[in-house]
């Protein structure tokens, strides 16, 4: 089976009805770019930059160290686009094992991700400058985690402009980047049309979207049986975001675990998704589903799944 899948590595990812589907890789370190290219990814859809920040006893990476890491990822992808997400620490990804940030009562609802970046603008701009400089060497997209307020969007844009001005003042080379928001808080999914007016693209983080929609801690074993990607409320939000982005002519990707689950591929295609980002090891099995899919048939079926009381049962047999 693995050998058969390996033969698909260089097969273009196109459905039976001719829809081109973008299969991207999620990476945690610049070195992972090699595995991404090897698996046939056409780019990096999510570089989780927080892994450069974690386990350093509070000593954060400086601009040069970050620049070297982002440039290494860009170089490693050999001209393919790289989406770099700004630091997303907190909750399940603490800076350190016993960092003071973990002391908050509800870390998943606390000062994490973009909230932390905006609370520490000097640190945020250090990261932005490093990413903008790496963008001089290839195609880079900038992705912001856990956006949920429009005033955060305005602050983000202001900080990006300031970072560019700082590089200009120094005469440093940098590249243009597209700006995108992670949609992983229900509020962001519900108001995605407002967010899309300000961003070039969105990426749906289903791991957190499920956690926050269902109020299920994604890392708590005691409630793991209730963590359900096929919950009708979750599917409704995912569908709404894909539809809004397609409507407005903006790029939309899913970069949570859902994108790498081959059992979900047909449903996501039926909902109109054309871009998936996942662990490199999952790319070929998802591609196999894409090659067998006919989106014209999947679309009406996906609408039925959205309205079903038990969507999981429908995924088993229909649509094949
Ligand atoms: C997500 O929340 O789905 C996601 C892709 O981000 P992370 O898993 O890093 O929180
Ligand atoms: Mg997330």
UniProtKB/TrEMBL annotation:
Question: Ranges for the PEP-utilising enzyme C-terminal domain?
Answer: 3-293
Q: Which organism is it from?
A: Comamonas avium
- Family, per the entry? Belongs to the PEP-utilizing enzyme family.
**Protein name per UniProt:** Phosphoenolpyruvate-protein phosphotransferase
**Gene name as annotated:** ptsP
**Full protein stretch here:** 268 to 587 of 587
Q: What keywords were assigned to this record?
A: Cytoplasm, Kinase, Magnesium, Metal-binding, Phosphotransferase system, Sugar transport, Transferase, Transport
Superkingdom in the source lineage = Bacteria
List the catalytic activities from the record: L-histidyl-[protein] + phosphoenolpyruvate = N(pros)-phospho-L-histidyl-[protein] + pyruvate
Judged by the first EC level, this protein's enzyme class is transferase
Functionally, this protein is described as follows: General (non sugar-specific) component of the phosphoenolpyruvate-dependent sugar phosphotransferase system (sugar PTS). This major carbohydrate active-transport system catalyzes the phosphorylation of incoming sugar substrates concomitantly with their translocation across the cell membrane. Enzyme I transfers the phosphoryl group from phosphoenolpyruvate (PEP) to the phosphoryl carrier protein (HPr).
Can the keyword ATP-binding be found in this entry's annotation? Answer: no
Its transmembrane ranges are none
Q: What is its EC number?
A: 2.7.3.9
GO terms (molecular function) for this protein are:
phosphoenolpyruvate-protein phosphotransferase activity
Cofactor(s) needed: Mg(2+)
Say if the entry is tagged with keyword DNA damage.
no
Q: Where in the cell is it found?
A: Cytoplasm
């Amino acid at each position: 089976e693995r050998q058969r899948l390996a033969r698909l590595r260089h097969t273009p990812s196109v459905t039976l009805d001719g829809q081109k589907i973008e299969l991207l890789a999620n990476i945690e370190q610049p070195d992972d770019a090699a595995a991404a290219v090897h698996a046939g990814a056409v780019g990096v859809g999510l570089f989780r930059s927080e892994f450069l920040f974690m386990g350093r006893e509070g000593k954060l990476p400086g601009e040069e160290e970050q620049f070297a890491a982002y440039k290494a990822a860009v170089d490693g992808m050999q001209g393919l686009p790289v989406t770099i997400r700004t630091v997303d620490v907190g909750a399940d990804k603490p800076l350190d094992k016993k960092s003071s940030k973990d002391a908050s009562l509800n870390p998943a609802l606390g000062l994490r991700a973009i909230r932390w970046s905006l609370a520490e603008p000097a640190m945020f701009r250090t990261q932005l400058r490093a990413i903008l400089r790496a963008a001089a060497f290839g195609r880079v997209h900038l992705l912001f985690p856990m956006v949920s307020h429009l005033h955060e969007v305005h602050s983000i844009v202001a900080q990006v402009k300031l970072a560019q001005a700082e590089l200009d003042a120094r005469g440093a080379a940098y590249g243009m980047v597209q700006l995108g928001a992670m949609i992983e808080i229900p509020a962001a999914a519900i108001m995605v049309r407002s967010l899309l007016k300000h961003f070039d693209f969105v990426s749906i983080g289903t791991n957190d979207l499920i956690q926050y929609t269902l109020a299920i801690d994604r890392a708590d074993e005691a409630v793991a049986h209730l963590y359900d990607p096929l919950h009708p409320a979750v599917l409704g939000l995912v569908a709404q975001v894909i539809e809004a982005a397609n409507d407005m002519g903006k790029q939309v990707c899913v970069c949570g675990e859902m994108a790498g689950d081959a059992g979900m591929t047909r449903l996501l295609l039926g909902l109109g998704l054309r871009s998936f980002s996942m662990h490199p090891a999952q790319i070929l099995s998802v591609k196999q589903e894409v090659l067998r899919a006919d989106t014209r048939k999947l679309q009406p079926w996906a609408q039925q799944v959205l309205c079903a009381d038990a969507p999981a049962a429908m995924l088993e047999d229909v649509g094949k």
